[in-house]
Amino acid sequence: MFDPFSQQGAGELNVLKRHLQSTVLTLLDRNTSQREIHRLTGVDRKTIRRYQALRAGAEANSPGEVTTGSVSADGQIPPPRPPAFGTSEATVTSSLARSACEAHRTWIEEQVRLKRNAQAIYQDLVDQFGFPSSYQSVKRFVRRLRHADPEQFDRLEFLPGEEAQVDYGEGAPTVDPKSGRYRRPRLFVMTLRYSRRSFRRVVWKSSQQVWAQLHEEAFRYFGGVPSYVVLDNLKEGVLKPDLYEPQLNPIYSAMLAHYAVVADPARVADPNRKGCVENAIQHTQGTALAGRRFETLEAQNEFLRHWEENWASKRIHGSTRRQVEAMFQEEKPHLRPLPVAPFRIFTEVVRTVCDDTTVRVDNSYYAARPAPIGSQVVVRIYTTTIEIRDRHTRALLRVHSRMAHPGSVVLPTSERPFNPSRQTAVLLASAERIGPQTRALCQQVFDTEGRPDSARCGALSGWAGSIRRGWSSRPARTPSTTASTATSTCVRPSSGCSNRRSSRLE
Q1: What is the pTM of this model?
Q2: Which of 334, 360, 389 is the last residue of a domain?
Q3: Which pLDDT score is estimated for 22?
Q4: Tally of domains within the chain
Q5: Which domain, by its residues, includes 383?
Q6: Shared-domain flag, residues 251 and 274
Q7: What is the mean pLDDT of residues 471-493?
Q8: Residue ranges in 356-478 assigned as alpha helix (H)
Q9: Does 361 share its domain with 460?
Q10: What distance in Å separates the CA atoms of residue 366 and residue 103, rounded to the nearest whole number?
Q11: Residue 281 lies in a domain
């Protein structure tokens, strides 16, 4: 068949689509005028003349008798050859064999298995091996390798009670009580890997506390705890993804520690690791919730519970070819028992220790020693208690009862610095231990002079105490000597106090 693209000068042609080329050439073979061809096809007459000239030149250069290749003996145009949708293994092998990349096949195959793209492979080929060919040759070679060797996935098998998988999806449209409009809540699903038994619950929004609470509800629904939980790298569970040492959310980590469960976050962009729960979410959305609407979240959760108990758990699973409920009864004894006390949900905040050694939480102040002043500590706020922990080690420093009234201060007297108002009470208590008269005298001085004379009370009580100790240690004397000494002793502080008082008044 005549091909105008294979002829010399074809680059100057106005390229037509294949069906227009066949139409123009057929009309030329039938001696149709250029004007008529233009009227029938809309092709410009200059283009028609160029096709006619190329065809005439091809017929003149061909040896022997030339027959029209575009029209069969009965005047019918043969159908075009169908495109090749698949490439045989022999074709791929021969194409790769002709590629300049064949010398580096083993190295390139290893890079393809490492999920590296063609651009990165080409750059390393040039830097490491002095690759002389172009990037396009590497791109074609890599594309053929990926087509010939698709990625292989392993079939994972787990023991009963070994693993559970969790993830979020979208629930059915439900009336939002705030706006009065339908919107989709978040669908939480936890699936036991061995039996495929699932727990489903919808919530309006997720948070650290909600994520931990949903796990706890799932564990109590199953009546036991698995050994591992596989989750996605969402912020409610994982703060910093890492293949070996992921940083978990502190609330989620505390919940897992309470139930003795180990978290196993999947790698980033690797949904196949938790394909069991992914399939459970799709099954829930496509079978249970498709085409349904609910007026409240409670109605949707009740429907999901009914659907799980009566349909999902009674079905024969497509992979195991066994009933889900029967496999769950086998798995349930292997789940670890639940702890006696439920997990206490808390809110965790970071606070700075003030200069009075307290931290401020909800407008109340709590003692934070031994944390240094100016350092940052972690505060866990429970319903009735406050825990102060070290920010780095999470070691427990202090525990306080949570104050209900704003402005409360929880700080023991022993941890407070000197304060005159408290020191006065200490001095009066010390005078009370000496004797009631000393206590009355100090109280009179304090009532008369106020707080500035608290130091005088201290001196007075100290002097009286020393006199009392000295009196008890002296030998017996005559009554006259004792009386005169006592009289002179009692008069001297009186004259001193009066002199000080008079001088202050002056």
Answers
A1: 0.58
A2: 334
A3: 82
A4: 5
A5: 347-415
A6: yes
A7: 43
A8: 420-434, 436-449, 454-473
A9: no
A10: 72
A11: yes
β-pairing, 163-170 vs 228-231, is parallel
- Residues 136, 16: one domain? no
Which of the two residues, 489 and 43, has the higher pLDDT score?
43
Residue 213 maps to a domain: yes
**Cα(387)–Cα(371) distance, integer angstroms:** 13
Q: Residues 398, 388: contact at Cβ < 8 Å? A: yes
Q: Judge if 304 and 426 occupy the same domain.
A: no
The confidence score (pLDDT) of residue 99 equals: 78
Per residue in 380-405, pLDDT (tens digit) is: 999 999 999 999 999 999 999 999 99
Instruction: Give the DSSP per-residue string, 170-237.
Output: E---EE-TTTSSEE--EEEEEEETTT--EEEEEES---HHHHHHHHHHHHHHHTSB-SEEEE---TTT
Which residue, 135, 111, 137, is CA-closest to 123? 135
Q: What is the pLDDT of residues 92-114, one digit of tens each?
A: 444 444 678 998 999 999 998 88
Same domain, 400 and 379: yes
- The yes-or-no verdict on residue 505 having pLDDT over 90 is no
Same domain, yes or no, for 403 and 376? yes
Residues 6+ apart with CB under 8 A from 267: 241, 243, 273
Pick left, alpha or beta for residue 468 (phi over 0 → left; psi -120 to 50 → alpha; otherwise beta). alpha
- Higher pLDDT: 459 or 36? It is 36
Contact (Cβ atoms closer than 8 angstroms) between residue 438 and residue 448? no
On whether residue 492 sits in a domain, the answer given is: no
Q: Are 361 and 351 in contact (CB under 8 A)?
A: yes
Q: Are residues 23 and 119 in the same domain?
A: no
Q: What mean pLDDT do residues 29-37 have? A: 86
The secondary structure of residue 243, as a DSSP letter, is S
- Whole-angstrom CA distances from 482 to 348, 474, 490 are 71, 11, 12
**445 and 365 in a common domain:** no
Confidence of residue 416 (pLDDT cuts 50, 70, 90): confident
